Amino acid sequence: MKGNSDVAGAEWIKSTYSNGDGGSCVEWAPGYAAATGLVPVRDSKDPRRPALLIGADAFSSFVRGVRLGSRWE
């Protein structure tokens, strides 16, 4: 995983797990991921900050864990 802000032209989608009370707001850019194999993830409350680029396999594992109700603390 690495930080990178070079995703200026990416189309972002807000996660369905994001809530409306100002917390847990996550966006990702699937088109960028399809083209590069890296999944950009950012905080939708502050989109000017750099995005994290996560390998597609690691991101898939993370999403699978979220869907299964895993908790990371």
TrEMBL record:
<protein>
    <submittedName>
        <fullName>DUF397 domain-containing protein</fullName>
    </submittedName>
</protein>
<dbReference type="Pfam" id="PF04149">
    <property type="entry name" value="DUF397"/>
</dbReference>
<feature type="domain" description="DUF397">
    <location>
        <begin position="10"/>
        <end position="67"/>
    </location>
</feature>
<dbReference type="InterPro" id="IPR007278">
    <property type="entry name" value="DUF397"/>
</dbReference>
